[in-house]
Amino acid sequence: MRVRVLLQLIQESSRSAPEAPFLRFVLDGRDVAVPDLGESLLDVMRRHLGVRSAKDGCSPQGQCGCCTVWVDGAPRVACVTPARRVAGRTVTTVEGLDDETRARWANAFADSGASQCGFCTPGIVMRLAWLESRGPFDEGAVTRALAAHLCRCTGWRTIVDAAARAMGHGAPPRGSTRRDLASAARRAELEGGSPQRAGTDVVLGRGGFSDDEAPADAVVAVPDGAGSWAIGTSAAEARGVAGRVPGRNSSVGLRHPVELPDGDFVVELLTTFVEPGYLEPDASWCVPGGEPATPLANGGAFGGKLHSAVPEAARRLARRQGRPVRALYTREDVVRLGPKRPPVAAGVRADGTGVMRVARTPGSGDLGPWKAAVLGVLPHLEIEEVDVCGPPVAAEIRAAGWAEAAVLRAALEGRGDLAGHARAGVTVESPEGARATVAIGVGGDVSVSVSAGEVLDEVVLRSYVAGAVHQALGWVRTEGIAVDHQGEVVDLTIRSFGILPAREMPHVEVAVVDAGGEARRGSDAVFAATAAAAWMAAGLPTRWPSARGG
Q1: Can you identify the CATH homologous superfamily of domain 3-95?
Q2: Which end of the chain is more exposed for a tag (fewer CB within 10 A), N or C?
Q3: Torsion (CA) 535, 536, 540, 546 in degrees, nearest 10
Q4: Looking at residue 64, what DSSP letter applies?
Q5: Distance CA 154, CA 149 (A)
Q6: What's the whole-number mean pLDDT along residues 361-371?
């Protein structure tokens, strides 16, 4: 693979160029001075000042809220704020909050399960602590404030609960007293699929993310869009070397890439490309001759990073450069290169026979496990792979295959009284043996009962359950990314994925059944049961996302 390296030219240019003037401002109560290089406030904080709580989830789109800080006491998204604009002003990060405020909010988030990987929560804490500083607030004010943020993991409701908790309202969340954080981490790893820490440090952004741990002298590599990697002394510089510009969303409508053959089907379903939507873009770093850092340092990314290219790129480039290298995806790289849930076209007859066509795209992985998952639920389906143009798809995405089969089977069994079944509850058992029943009331509120073996930690399990409800509702109703007829993704901003915002998330009531025995992943069963209930409540529209059309 070719590597475009401009470091020598950059270094020679920097030696010959006049010394840059300095920007001076107050950061968390201390006077700081940094070179005025035309960088964003986020780049200045992370590159020059060692701030790691402000995260880069979409830079420079300004759409995820992970880099929210205060400038002169008001929240500001740092990735689209030129550092020059804060000259002479006061910038506050979560570390700069007074000790009582920071501890109170961190404890409230930890006690309520309002933080899983913790990538988005420092920015959210800053937004809500600012809201608190303006006087009393209610749930409506919280959901309005959260419009500036994206959280993929927790389903928003736990964050709303944490805000109430921070203000001293209501009883402690169930399971939040006398917690064993080692058991909480075990439950989080089981649900998320990779090691994950729990506790207040995670809430404050200290979960051990790969890019936060990179050596200070590492150079940065990003894909250049032509099968190579561009290298610079900073992420912004590497993006400039690569000639990358911020992605945009498009006016192109969603397409359903796989067509269903004619047949006497009683249930039909067509899905489209869906972005996993994890907040931390793929990142790794490596020193020459070392092992690359995992991009799964504190969260499973819903299966989207299991085969990420960044660790091997970091290893290879560090060896070639003879120095540490950080290999990063921008948000646009994640959307273009990261694997998606395989789109399907499925038709099922009354006797359980039928056909499910699945999209295979260039660069996709082995769909054998996906097929096996489908046939484990609906053994009489014919499965056909269809070659289509589009981004890569993968069987490892959350519950891929068996969740589609589970919702089809539930629809087949409940089609005589769809609304009644949705209200009474749809039950799904996962391949791991977890069991979930999800009901959607007339007003849209969701009630969940989940049995996943030994509970380990009820707070973490409830958080993952709420997150699974959120993701499933979005999958059925609103989520999808536009792909043109050449197979290129054209919806590249994080806000174009269709992820449900806080204001559209219904109340979720969770009952945890302690069945004992081996602990099992429970949230995937909730994900499938919620999708089935939402689909039935809507009357089984053929195309998902049902609220956006195609």
Answers
A1: Beta-grasp domain (3.10.20.30)
A2: N
A3: -30
A4: S
A5: 13
A6: 93
